[in-house]
Amino acid sequence: MGKPKHYRPPGKKKEGNAARYVTRSQAIKILQVSLSDFRKLCIHKGVFPREPKKKVKGNHHTYYHLKDVMYILHDPLLEKFREIRAYQRKIKKAKAKKNDELAKLLLSRAPSYRLDMVIRDRYPTFIDALRDLDDPLTMVHLFAMLPAIDRLKIEVKRIHNCRRLCHEWQAYISRTHKLRKVFVAVKGIYYQAEVDGQKITWLAPHARQQVLTDDVDFNVMLTFLEFYEALLGFVNFQLYHSINVKYPPILDPRLEALAADLYALSRYFDANHRAAIQEPQVAGSSRSEQEQEESDLRLAQLQHQLPANEPGALMHLVQDASSEIEEDETTRNCKNLFQNKKIFLSREVPRESLLFVIPAFGGIVSWEGDGAPFAESDDSITHQIVDRPTQGHVYLSREYVQPQWVYDCINARIILPTEPYMVGRDPPPHLSPFVDDEAEGYVPDYAKTIRQLQAAAKSDIQPLPGTGNDELDNSQNMLAEGFINRTEAMEAAEKKQEMMFLEKQYHNELKMELQGVSSINKLNSEDTESKEQSLPDVEEQRAEDPSRLMMSRKKRGLYKAIEMGKQQKKERVEKLKERKRNIEAAQKSEKKHKKAQVS
To answer: Which pairs with CB-CB distance under 8 Å and at least 24 residues apart come from 426-429?
Structure first.
């Protein structure tokens, strides 16, 4: 009888996947921890399951790389978790013996752990931390909007900490003009900022009451949140110190209760910044008094349940420091977008988002309520953001627009006309700045209009003598250059397609000559009128391409997948065009019906 296929003599060393990968139960046995602690360690250390090509123990197991398990085994955090687990047993034993005093004493002295060394280990440089900041920002912004529920172990203190971190991050982005894109979606508001050359995208939920479902494991999410809070705190610390601003900012709770008077807060931080420069070394007694004062302020914030750093509380935090930073061309353009624009927010608009994005692009903003920089009756207000069907009292010196106008101006990087966004009108479609229309193969009409306005803004067309502003408002007169550029691009595309076809034809002839077939017979058999006909479609060329027959099975499958993807993209474009045609037809029929009713 022969030996089994996978027979390994006793005592022989394991080889291959059996030696490189272990199951989750084996990893827990090696580390000698519970399943919950193992999950925490994996989340904190960035260890994730692997998919080996050959699963030795079966397909129903979760596998980890043995090097990752050894990496956790030698980490000091593992010993800390074991210490905490042993200490919790002492507390449980004291409660079982009804020794309440000992249980309280043990709870007051319970050991804790910090993630400082873990963060420094996972992110050796600051750029590494910025690259991995998308998920932390999204998670922290999510929990900043959640209600505190003891059943799910979501504490009030943690919610306040998330709000504090969010507003500190937003204050830095707003005052240094690092914001680049904004898109309002059903899930929430997508933001993209560029910090030190790294594009950071995050999602902030809408300011509404959040309903928590039971199908979400909040224990795992809270473990991620614990790491993300520490990481975002380190990032904020580095960003604030890079512009010579003290971190964390300790604010007066009275100012926060009044929605933070911007000018008083600016003076407070300017004085704090100057004091930090003039007195780099503080005596021990004064330092201890300052720490005591800061702790009292924090305690007052928690007692009054004031969310630390309200929107607007940090708007002018780094006003002087940010002006000292060298700005690139993109930052200067963003900084001057809403320059000399005073915008007032009505009470029904998303205040927190607009307070973040408008100052990030150079605008001055105010709102209804105490602590606002200026009131609604100020004559210098240029725009008022309103999100209601009608506006009662109207000031003739300002324009009333919907909130979408602000976001569309930010994405277009120009001041768009306010007429389509006036109160009571259906605004234009809100286009996503994260979608490449050219790559998708479909450019919406409003995107074309915005491009025309951008071209007109770049060319800086001045009115000719004898012409008024009404003629300049006509996009056809303003953007003749844009139409010329499009025709030139179309001609260049046709020439490129013709060259590609001729080149492919030449390669086919060479292949046929190599195979021993004369190309003269092929040329004589072609129709003489082929030059007058339009160029064949790209898909027909690919179908007739003999090189496809010479491909391997794997490459043919990949080629087929690419073709299917292009076909699906074409179908999506056709659906969009069909939907557009239906909408236009419905609008025409509605206009005819109204005219018939009037007549």
So the answer is: 427/402, 428/404
